[in-house]
Amino acid sequence: MTSPATPPASPGSESARSDASSREPLTVVIAADTFAPDINGAARFAERLAAGLAGRGHHVHIVTPSVGYRNHGVFTENIEGQDLTVHRLPGVRWPPHDWLRFVWPWRAKHYARKILTDVKPDVVHSQSHIVIGRGLTRIARQRGIPVVATNHVMAENIIDFTTLPPVLDKVVVKLAWDDAKRTFDMSRAVTTPTRKAAEFLEQTIDIQGVIPISCGIDKRNYTPDLTPRQHHRVLFVGRLTTEKHVEVTLQAVARLAPELPDITFDIVGGGDQRRNLEQTVQRLGIEDRVVFHGRVGEEELRASYGTADVFAIASIAELQSIATMEAMASGLPIVAANAVALPHLVQDGENGYLFEPGDVSDLADKLRRVLTASPEEYLRMQEASLKGVEIHDIERTLDTFEKLYRGEPLAG
């Protein structure tokens, strides 16, 4: 694996990166139960973290399931412009899900022993406590290798795919969180993307000291369009699963159609709910206003943000929402459900509006406010989004994780 040059400094972290560049690079193993080509928040964070660390000269190894059971091995893959070493373990597709893959749990420790023996990392960073991260955490603990754990999981993210009767969902979730606590107790530090998510984790599994660290984005990858124009394009980016509640936005768009004849809704992303959502579109009679783009490449994704006028997210299970941050970095006003971590990104009345989860009338009203705003008011919301996303600069995120990897204290 090559060691690319350190990326340009960003405001607020130049001295920290200068100090880091003069020190010995670290060897980091990142355990990721979901990774490219998967498209979801946890996968995208793992990709950006790995690429950012490699860009700073660290030696990064990603451990993740293979695409196809027989396509396993060690590969050099270009992620976010960096050549990374990816250990793809034999992956099995989970039938109830349209793309999710997993490693047989009883093989996880075996793979962990082999990888840790071969790589000899300074630290393991687990992105999931479910299979790969669980196995690597336990073997790393036995060998005295420090572990940093990041939680991206909420119960709503998994219970739709257990295939068990609903009455058993609470039992499954409790067992899963009990096991998560055992895994997190073996870690040097436990992190999650926001303070709200940290409080949720501390209350759910009775642990203390969870550290909120933004997933971070590179604002330089997004080009805001601040020129005056007519506003009619609503955008959603994300997995089409039940906890995203895209149907609520569809109903709001249908409600606004008679008074806003140009309104359209672009849906970017794939998932098991696409067919149900397409049927909802037909039932609502808005086939000419809704476009399902499916899973798209990075350039097309950024273009989607560039042509949209407002980003709408009705999800009730966001521990942060990278897509919302990307929309903010693209200069879009946001209309979001007032649930979990979304209020950390959307300041009601500033860079957009919050609406009561599941309330179609409230969502329609907030979308109307954005789409009919005066040029001055719309520009004010755009600028508030750009200002609000500054704290989520990926360089700050990398600075913080480097300190955790080295066992250094965090400021504040």
Write the layout of secondary structure elements.
Elements: H1 14-21, E1 27-31, H2 41-55, E2 59-65, E3 73-79, E4 82-89, E5 92-93, E6 101-102, H3 108-119, E7 123-126, H4 132-142, E8 147-150, H5 169-184, E9 189-192, H6 195-205, E10 211-212, E11 233-237, H7 246-256, E12 264-268, H8 274-284, E13 290-294, H9 298-307, E14 310-313, H10 322-329, E15 334-337, H11 342-345, E16 352-355, H12 360-371, H13 375-388, H14 394-406
Parallel strand pairs: 1-2, 1-7, 2-4, 7-8, 8-9, 9-10, 11-12, 11-14, 12-13, 14-15, 15-16
Antiparallel strand pairs: 3-4, 5-6
Helix pairs in contact: 2-14, 3-4, 7-8, 7-12
Domain Glycosyl transferase family: 232-384
Protein name: D-inositol 3-phosphate glycosyltransferase
Biased composition (Pro residues): 1-10
Characterization of the model:
38% of the residues lie in helices and 17% in strands. By secondary structure, it is an alpha/beta fold. The chain has an eight-stranded mixed beta sheet with strand order 3-4-2-1-7-8-9-10, sandwiched between helices. Helix 2 packs across helix 14, helix 7 runs parallel beside helix 8 and helix 7 crosses helix 12. 47% of the residues are buried.
- Tell the overall outline: globular
Question: Counting H and I runs of at least 4 residues, what is the number of helices?
Answer: 14
Secondary-structure-based class equals alpha/beta
Largest sheet features:
8 strands, mixed
CATH names the topology of the largest domain as Rossmann fold
Percent of sequence in beta strands: 15-25%
User: CATH superfamily of the largest domain, called what?
Assistant: Glycogen Phosphorylase B
The total tally of domains equals: 2
* Helical content class: 25-40%
Average pLDDT works out at 88
Distance between the termini: 35 Å
Listing every helix as H and every strand as E from the N terminus to the C terminus, the arrangement reads HEHEEEEEHEHEHEHEEHEHEHEHEHEHHH
What is the rounded Rg?
21 Å
Second rung of CATH, namely the architecture of the largest domain:
3-Layer(aba) Sandwich
What's the number of extended β-strand segments? 16
CATH class of the largest domain: Alpha Beta
Model regions low in confidence, pLDDT < 50 over at least 5 residues: 1-18
Largest sheet: spatial strand order: 3-4-2-1-7-8-9-10
